[in-house]
Structures are given as structure tokens and as C-alpha cells.
């Protein structure tokens, strides 16, 4: 029977470190600040927003929300983003995506300067992550997955790692972060021939394919570490991951649950990024 590894202990450790530094800054009369930009009232955005606000408070980081109408024009959205970017009291900016159809992400993704772009929306940060530039900001979710592996002392160096999913939000950056840890990485997806066979060779499997409980026990190598970053809602309204945990736990060494797994670490990574952005912008 594998070990169920939860995110709370990981998030608490990151939070404690960030809070310590943020409180030192407050004693000097300054504070990191996050600005969340949300268009519309999507429930998943609102849920993450509540979690982010709570995490920033626990880290002694200021946080504001800019809530915009779902029918905002692209022109007006760009004006609002420029105001946020030019606000020198704001050090980190998180823009919830996907944006509504009338807004072309390609037309807006460069507006927030990379130094404030704490969740890797700006392509300059994507390039920094690819190149290994430590001043960049990887997306928070794949970095949270790596933090989970590190916290629970799961060796990545030299291991066969498989990422199921190829999005720019999780899959591709997760693969780059695993390469940084000297893993041997394969990216697979819904069009991969013999997906079960490819996944079944993984010492480490990161599931980010976007389909509820798609990864079952016959995808898993005996003793593998499985990190589930999927967030889905089943027909009964329950939150589920991409992995069928009950079917896999008998084969794995460790596995993350959904909820209470990687998701709980993501907001802590976000706080760490805001502090890093503050330090890089101010030199403090």
C-alpha cells in the first residue's frame, strides 16, 4: 500500500519561510503586494481567489483584487492591465485565465512586465524558465508539484519521469522543471500511442491531462511516485483528480490526493513568487 502524501505540510513550510521574510520587511516600513485580476465570476476563479487571499494574509503579504465585468472590451481590459503594471505599490500580478472570448490573450500577455508576472503569463518568463534563468517565474502549479517531490525526499535525479499533459499551464513547464532536477523526461498526451505503456515506465508520473480519474492502476509502474495536478468535477459535483487514487494506491510508493494535494501548495508557491518579485524589483 502506497503512502498518501498531502500538501498541507509542504504549504506550511513554504508559508513559514515567506512570512518570516515578509514580516522583516514590514518592520522596515514596506510590504510585498499581490494584485489579482479577475474577469467575470467563474466559480473556480473565485475559489482560487479566496484561497490566495487567505494565503497572502497568512504570509503577511498585501493582496488586492481587481474584478472586471465579463463583457469588458479588449481595449478597456488593456487599459486596466496597464494601470496595474504601472502601479509601483504592486509587486506581483496574477491574471486568471482563460480570458473571455472577446479578449485575445496574444494581444495582452506582454502587458504585465515579466518582473511582476508571478504565474508565467508573459512569454518572456516562459523563455526564462526554458533557459534556466532564475529571475523568471515558472507557473505556480508545476512548481508546487516539484516542491511536493522535494519535501517528501523523492529522488528525481536520473529517474524516468513522465508528464501526462502538454499544456503551457502545467505539462510543458513541469517537464522543464523536472529536467532542471536531472530527471529523464517524457511528455505524453491524449494522442500518444500506447499511453499506458509510456506511463507505465515512469518512476515519477505527473498527471495533468485534464480528465477525471483517467489514470488507473494499469498506467502505473510498481513503486512509482504519482503527483496528481488534475482538478475536475464529476457528475455528482465532487472534485476529482486525473488519477483514480483508490485504484492506484496499491501499486505506488507515494501518491497525492485531490483535493488536499498539490493544489494546497500552489498558493504558497504564489506567495513565494510575490516575495521574490518584490526583492527583485526593489533590491531589498
Topology at a glance:
Blueprint: E1 3-4, H1 8-27, E2 33-39, H2 43-58, E3 62-68, H3 74-86, E4 92-95, H4 105-108, H5 123-131, H6 140-151, E5 160-164, H7 171-180, E6 184-188, H8 195-199, E7 204-207, E8 225-228, E9 232-233, E10 239-240, H9 245-248, E11 254-255, H10 263-282
Parallel strand pairs: 1-11, 2-3, 2-4, 5-6, 5-7, 7-8, 8-11
Antiparallel strand pairs: 9-10
Short description:
The protein folds into two domains: 85 residues, Leucine Dehydrogenase, chain A, domain 1 (Rossmann fold, 3-Layer(aba) Sandwich); 123 residues, Rossmann fold. The protein is 40% helix and 15% strand.
Describe the structure.
The structure is a single chain. By secondary structure, this protein is α/β, with parallel strands linked by helices. The protein folds into two domains: 29-113, 3-Layer(aba) Sandwich (Rossmann fold), CATH 3.40.50; 140-262, 3-Layer(aba) Sandwich (Rossmann fold). The chain has helices spanning 8-27, 43-58, 74-86, 105-108, 123-131, 140-151, 171-180, 195-199, 245-248, 263-282; strands spanning 3-4, 33-39, 62-68, 92-95, 160-164, 184-188, 204-207, 225-228, 232-233, 239-240, 254-255. Strands 1-11-8-7-5-6 form a six-stranded parallel β-sheet. The chain has a three-stranded parallel β-sheet with strand order 3-2-4, with helices on both faces. 43% of the residues are buried. The mean pLDDT is 96.
Amino acid at each position: 500500500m502506497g503512502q498518501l502524501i498531502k500538501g498541507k505540510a509542504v504549504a506550511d513550510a513554504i508559508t513559514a519561510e515567506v512570512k518570516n521574510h515578509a514580516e522583516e520587511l514590514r518592520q522596515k516600513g514596506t510590504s510585498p503586494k499581490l494584485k489579482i485580476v479577475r474577469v467575470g465570476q467563474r466559480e473556480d476563479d473565485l475559489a482560487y481567489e479566496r484561497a490566495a487571499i487567505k494565503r497572502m494574509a497568512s504570509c503577511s503579504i498585501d493582496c488586492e483584487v481587481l474584478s472586471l465585468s465579463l463583457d469588458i472590451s479588449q481595449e478597456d481590459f488593456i487599459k486596466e492591465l496597464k494601470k496595474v503594471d504601472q502601479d509601483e505599490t504592486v509587486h506581483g500580478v496574477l491574471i486568471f485565465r482563460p480570458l473571455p472570448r472577446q479578449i485575445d490573450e496574444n494581444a495582452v500577455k506582454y502587458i504585465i512586465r515579466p518582473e511582476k508576472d508571478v504565474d508565467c503569463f508573459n512569454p518572456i518568463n516562459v523563455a526564462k524558465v526554458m533557459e534556466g534563468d532564475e529571475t523568471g517565474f515558472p507557473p505556480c502549479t508545476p512548481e508546487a508539484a516539484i516542491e511536493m517531490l522535494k519535501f517528501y525526499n523523492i529522488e528525481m535525479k536520473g529517474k524516468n519521469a513522465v508528464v501526462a499533459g502538454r499544456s503551457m499551464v502545467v505539462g510543458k513547464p513541469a517537464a522543464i522543471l523536472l529536467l532542471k532536477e536531472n530527471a529523464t523526461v517524457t511528455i505524453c498526451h491524449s494522442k500518444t500511442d500506447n499511453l499506458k505503456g509510456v506511463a507505465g515506465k515512469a518512476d515519477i508520473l505527473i498527471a495533468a491531462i485534464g480528465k477525471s480519474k483517467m489514470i488507473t492502476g494499469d498506467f502505473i509502474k510498481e513503486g512509482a511516485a504519482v503527483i496528481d495536478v488534475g482538478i475536475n468535477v464529476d457528475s455528482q459535483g465532487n472534485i476529482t483528480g486525473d488519477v483514480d487514487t483508490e485504484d492506484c494506491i496499491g501499486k505506488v510508493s507515494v501518491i497525492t490526493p485531490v483535493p488536499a494535494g498539490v493544489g494546497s501548495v500552489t498558493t504558497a508557491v504564489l506567495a513565494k513568487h510575490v516575495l521574490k518579485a518584490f526583492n527583485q524589483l526593489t533590491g531589498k
